[in-house]
Amino acid sequence: MAVGFEFQSPTLKIYRITHKQEIELCRLQTAADWAGLKREAEAITARPSFFSKSVVLSRSGGWYAVPDGDDVEFVVSHVPIADDGAVQLGTTMANLEARIDEIEALFTINARRTDCPWLVRSDSPAIFAQYPPFLLKWDMPNKTDVIGFPQITGGIGLEKLRKVFKILAQNTEASDIFLGVEKAPYVKLLDNISNNFEAKKTPDPKWPDHEPSREMRSLVSLIAAYLHRGASNSGQGLGAVKQLWFIMSRTDFGTLFQQLPNDEQQHYRQVPGDWVDYICSTVMPAVNAVYAPNMNPDGYLIDRLITDYRELQGDKRVQIDITRRDWLIAMTRGADVLTATAHPQKWWRRKDKKMFFDVNGEHRLRGSGALGTKMDEIVIGDLTINAPIFEFRAPGVGANVMPHSAWSDYAIKAYRFLSACNVIDKETPINGAGPW
Hints:
36% helix; alpha+beta; 2 domains; ten-stranded antiparallel β-sheet; globular; 13 helices
């Protein structure tokens, strides 16, 4: 099992340039012609060109930098859960912090951060040796630190996921780390799922003598979080689908369903309608009375209109035409219709499939279930467990920025928490207030 991190920085903006443009910019930098450098840089970015996110800008000591739009994102490679894991992660974070310190220092020379907030390769050939031709801007002249939005990715054994929900619902330091400073609605939802819905005591009315397994209780709890988030603020605009999922499964839901005990899988494969009814008529009203007597299974799974961050012409918005029933039944068949894979680009010419691609040609369901059947491995003694991979997206929102000097402490605490959740046995309580 491993834990990884992403820190997206709005401080540093990066643009793709031609080799010819880079030669001229470097000439101006070498000549200390700051007015000329600023003028040329502004002319280039008036009609900007961006890197694909698949481009790796730089790689070093357990981390790498990639573009995300015009932001620079620092990605910490997955660190396995092991006795020396926290030490290994600390070394990586120190390496990353030192590199960002070097970039910050370059922007302070000749008051570049405020007077000419642009860096080019000749500012430090050693630091930027791996970069393709680029132009880097310090976009926050009033801030002296590089800041970033964090996201956490890690494997959690499905039988442990509901336990994680219960801990995060306690509104402690763990909630701060995994749900961010705007955590209140997420804590409330997880509290409803963990306490209002008594999963162990709430069997399927059509299978009354069956006690749901730990795996089923966890999966149903995750589904409830998705359904509630998809139903909230009905009809309102939403920049991108992935903004809904504060805990997003990177392993697809068809694979999650296949982690249930065989008797549960076989039962609901034979009567998929009962799976739909159980979740919509039993689970969701228990989570929140607003869904009583039942959540409409034929309503839209994403009952929000997608705006592509308001890049659509006029006030146009797009409805993703996937129903709750579509999604729930598909997972009993080992599929997940809430993924880009389920709606490939080869269908783009079909008018009814254009809803899945945004103005930039990117899939509107990107991210969700994007790892397909891929699982993480958790090794506990001689036992190896396959664990679904989850991304905690809630910290990556506008109010939850932190200076890069705080990233290391944040990452190590998150790492230790996920380690504890996976390694400690099911019955042992975990102190959600930390440290772990």
